Amino acid sequence: MPDLSQALTLAASELTLAIGALVLLMVGAFIGEKSARLVSILSVALLIAAAAVAATGPLGTAFNGAYVADPLAIYAKVAIYLASAVAVVLGGGWMQRTGIARFEFPILIVLAAVGMGMMVSSGDLISLYVGVELHSLALYILAAYHRDDLKASEAGLKYFVLGALSSGLLLYGSSLIYGFSGSMHFEDIAAYATANPGPGLIFGLVFLICGLAFKVSAAPFHMWTPDVYEGAPTPVVAFFTTAPKMAAMVLFARALSEGFLQAHDQWAQVLILIALASFVVGAWGGLAQKDIQRLLAYSSIANIGYAILGIAAGTEQGLQAMVMFMTLYMIDTMGFFAILLSLSRNGRPIRKIADLAGLKKDRPVTAIAITVLSLSVLGMPPFSGFWGKYYVFGAAASAGYWMVAAAGLVASVVAAFYYLRIIKLMWFDAAPDDVVATDKAPVEAQWIGWACAAFSFPLVIVGLTWLEPLTRIAATGFGAK
């Protein structure tokens, strides 16, 4: 009983969310669709409470090492739960505007957060797979949430089918690893890999990496990303680009560092190839896009390449750079999508890049916020995105991968074109004659977007003074070199 009590204490944040989601589901079922706003408010409170529980919880391992509560997991959970809470707020405003308010939306995000919490605390292959599938099942439904929209239904179906393929890769890789090492635990796998390095274990590791690369939409496993981002509802895409990406990247780092520490030279080569492919696909693929959400899909592919480069370095500095980069990237992209949700013209949401033409005249403050966030994502100093890439490139160069860092820098220059195009449309092009003034925006989306832009510049300098030490603590103990 003491061991069980300790295990439940360590997993208190996931238990809080799981039990809370069941209670909210009963509330929604008994009250009906009128409970959508109430369930959304309670879901936000639940996610914030879970973040507080995670931040103040003890450290240790539970369930025979299958569950790990360490500084990295706690940092990631707080970031994931808070980002999920913001996604619920954005989704509430979107549902009211579209007239499809349903109580299931925030509950699905809470359930996805449970899975993401499991992912970042995974200590073996079983908990890894359970966490990935729990959060993926909720994301499949969210992608097709607007079921009356053909593009949303198509997005959900594509995501589900390709997600099943990635799950197969994960299971096949895990079965090979278990077959050769005789254990599911990362520590035991690391001990076997050290004593008996062989091609069979590396073969399973490659399959595992491919399955996880799908979850973070890294090239060449990105085939689902542009279509899903274009077809899924905007608040759902805002959620996809933030919390699940952070969870999957932390899981990536944990599985490789704890299970295959001595095989760094092998898995680093695979990660570098994936990072380079992501640079190329994300930078050049976005040049021809006309849909904003599809453009942001290619932007996310490129940025995931930068985060993977931090893991490939195989050092504490590399993990810290990845965590720092993903945190700043989450803030930038959440702000961008929040502002996108706050904009509409002629009574319809803005979806095309050309719709932003002349925005400075209708909404000058919003145009400034989009400009700041665009410059930040492309990595222009002194915005927050610059500091994220600065840490990643520095870690890669320190580990000897300075040529790969140089390739990432070139990709950033190419990707700058489509962000500068957005800025040019807003500030120098005139709006079409048949476009009326922008409708009044939802207050919550507007303020979230402005707050993220304020953090990106100039508050990022203040933010780095506490973010940098936190990420350093989270990365403690990582390193294959």
UniProtKB/TrEMBL annotation:
Membrane topology field: Multi-pass membrane protein
Residues in NADH:quinone oxidoreductase/Mrp antiporter transmembrane domain copies: 122-413
InterPro entries associated with the record: NADH-Q_OxRdtase_suN/2, ND/Mrp_TM
Catalysed reactions listed for this entry: a quinone + NADH + 5 H(+)(in) = a quinol + NAD(+) + 4 H(+)(out)
GO MF term list: NADH dehydrogenase (quinone) (non-electrogenic) activity; NADH dehydrogenase (ubiquinone) activity; quinone binding
Role according to the record: NDH-1 shuttles electrons from NADH, via FMN and iron-sulfur (Fe-S) centers, to quinones in the respiratory chain. The immediate electron acceptor for the enzyme in this species is believed to be ubiquinone. Couples the redox reaction to proton translocation (for every two electrons transferred, four hydrogen ions are translocated across the cytoplasmic membrane), and thus conserves the redox energy in a proton gradient.
Quaternary structure (record): NDH-1 is composed of 14 different subunits. Subunits NuoA, H, J, K, L, M, N constitute the membrane sector of the complex.
Family stated for the protein in its record: Belongs to the complex I subunit 2 family.
PANTHER family: NADH DEHYDROGENASE
Protein name according to UniProt: NADH-quinone oxidoreductase subunit N
Name of the coding gene: nuoN
